[in-house]
Write a structure and sequence with these properties.
This protein is α/β, with parallel strands linked by helices and about 350 residues long. It has two domains: about 150 residues, 3-Layer(aba) Sandwich (Rossmann fold), CATH 3.40.50; about 160 residues, Glucose-6-phosphate isomerase like protein, domain 1 (Rossmann fold, 3-Layer(aba) Sandwich), CATH 3.40.50. It is built from 13 helices and nine strands. The strands form two sheets. It has a five-stranded parallel sheet, sandwiched between helices. Helix 5 links the parallel strand 3 and strand 4. Helix 10 runs parallel beside helix 12. The longest helix is centred in the C-terminal third of the chain and has 22 residues. It is globular, with a radius of gyration of 21 Å. The protein binds 5-phosphoarabinonic acid (PA5).
Length: about 350
């Protein structure tokens, strides 16, 4: 490939690059609508009840790490937008956040079931006598959930946690529906599935990856897409193996903006916003974009859709695909996250 001109390489991208996708993640993306439908049905026959608790659940804590807790982060972000009265908290440490309602439900999520911080948060929830349940593909989390006789939702295994997002996201949505913590989302899911079948998100991902190739990535989003932007950052880190800096409007306008007084041409800035931003915010973004465009390239993505649920998931998908195609452009295996495994191995077994 080294003898070929840049244009020839362009022509062959992405077809000649799929062999770098050693675990055929692309197939999974191609089946995304089936995976969503499958995931949404998983909790159907699983009893999710807490007979030792009489008070209604007033808060949900989604506890996990990395590719597992990201579903919770995006769910929290989505409900902050559409129903700010719901209390959803994220736990991503060895202990749960200190201030949790005594009527909270702690949902421990670990795709592998072996993540020590998540197992530790499970134990913390037990210590604090909170309602707890687990979502996992098996291993130790499934084991302790069974031992403590708490609800256990098992999801299909054998893929990477970040790839398993549909299983984590739509399964959690269904769990929250079954608990009557949120309303039924089946219509919204149907409309999402329709959009996913109609629009070519893959080409958006390919296009974006082309712009980001050999650039340092900076992501700016509004509060409306905070969780989604975080998913983008982590997907560029894990799939493409590149750094990605993340910050938010309006805060960047008060500090980070100054860096664009110098040449920043090695960077590419992505601005994520919805079609729901207030007028003042839109004006702020427009001026910021104009100013930073003098120092580096900027891509602004307006996440549109007939409803917020669809907007959120399609925004995630565009980021997932962009990070996937960026990995291929660098001739990297998007699934390879062996350094995380090395760290876990060197840490050795966890004993509480
Ligand atoms: O994407 C990944 O592989 C990681 O971010 C993992 O999700 C993280 O290390 C936690 O593992 P698990 O999701 O199995 O609990």
């Amino acid at each position: 490939m080294t003898d070929k001109t840049k244009d020839q390489i362009e022509e062959e991208f992405p077809d000649d690059f799929y062999p770098y996708d050693k675990e055929d993640v692309r197939q999974f993306y191609k089946q995304i609508t089936n995976k969503i439908q499958e995931a949404y049905k998983i909790p159907e026959l699983i009893p999710i009840a807490f007979p030792n608790f009489s008070e209604p659940i007033d808060e949900i804590v989604i506890a996990g790490m990395g590719g597992s807790v990201i579903a919770g982060i995006v769910i929290k972000n989505y409900f902050e937008l559409v129903n700010p009265n719901l209390r959803i908290i994220i736990g991503n440490d060895y202990n749960l956040p200190r201030l949790i309602s005594k009527n909270a439900l702690v949902i421990c999520v670990s795709y592998s079931g072996n993540t020590e911080e998540t197992l530790s948060m499970f134990k913390d929830a037990q210590r604090r006598k909170l309602r707890v349940m687990a979502i996992t593909s098996g291993a130790k989390l499934a084991e302790i959930a069974s031992n403590y006789r708490v609800p256990l939702v098992k999801i299909p295994g054998k893929i990477h946690p970040r790839q398993a997002l549909p299983y984590l996201y739509f399964t959690t949505i269904r769990v929250l529906e079954k608990l009557k913590f949120i309303e039924d989302h089946s219509q919204l899911i149907n409309s999402l599935i329709k959009v996913l079948g109609q629009k070519n998100f893959e080409s958006l991902g390919i296009e974006l990856a082309k712009k980001l190739y050999k650039k340092k990535i900076i992501i700016y989003s509004t509060k409306n897409l905070k969780g989604v932007a975080y998913r983008w950052k982590t997907q560029f880190n894990e799939n493409s193996k590149v750094p990605a800096h993340l910050h938010y409007f309006p805060e960047i306008c008060h500090n980070e903006l100054c860096q664009y007084m110098e040449d920043m041409s090695e960077y590419h800035v992505i601005i994520l916003k919805t079609d729901k931003e207030p007028r003042r915010m839109l004006k702020r973004i427009e001026i910021t974009k104009k100013l930073i465009s003098k120092a580096c390239e900027v891509t602004e993505l307006d996440i549109k859709g007939s409803n917020d649920f669809t907007k959120f998931y399609t925004a995630i998908l565009i980021g997932d695909l962009a990070s996937y195609y960026l990995a291929l452009r660098y001739r990297r295996n998007p699934s390879d996250d062996s350094i995380i495994g090395t760290l876990k191995k060197e840490l050795g077994p966890w004993t509480s």
